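Milestone M4 deliverable, item 7.
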Amino acid sequence: MKTIIIDDDQTAIRYLADRLEQYDFINVCGTANTKEQALELIKSQNPDIIFLDIETQGSTDFDLLDRINKATDNKCKTIIYTGHSQHMLSAFRNSAYDYLIKPADQLELDTIMKRLQNENYTAETENSVIKSKNNNKLLFYTNAVDFRLVQIGDIGLFRYNHELRVWEVILVGRKEPIRLKRSTNNETLLAIDSRFVQISQRCIININYLQEVNNNICQLLPPFDTIDNIKIGRMYRKKLIERFSSF
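Output delivered:
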């Protein structure tokens, strides 16, 4: 998420920027020391998050927060980052996303970052898979703009790629798996259709392709019979049997 820090104290900017490096979803794309610099930077970068010291150049300026909200159509989340707590109520009345006291306490910063990440993740996930009205086709987003249209019945399984940290879909007639959008999670995939059953933390199968289970290893029907080591996790075995009996 593109992030800007606005503060007239360069030391405070460097301190916060260093702390934000630990969050891999945050990209500090610019900093500003004055209101004029801030507005130009916001216009050019279109940030998702702004850390704003409301007390700049010896005065308290909520006008800048209002201008930020207007410039970004209220889509940017502004976190007030200041050394005093007395402006907290005014900040929230002026639509601040959160309030952080300098120097940033690690637990408080973690709480804000988790909230930001969860909200962003949920928003992206809602748009990562689109099901057709006739329930036979899916549109999978593979990144922000690209997508793949597939027949639900052509899906043999979903596998989680730990190295890339994404779910992949394995299809009939395609040798290589399709990597899905990073925001796609197991709950989104399971909600697609009742035939999809999770058998481990990293694997969801199409139960219509299940042929047998031998020593906790699933053997699938062609064309997925060459896929090895589809192992059932202990906590998922009972759910698999219950799902199969309901078909």
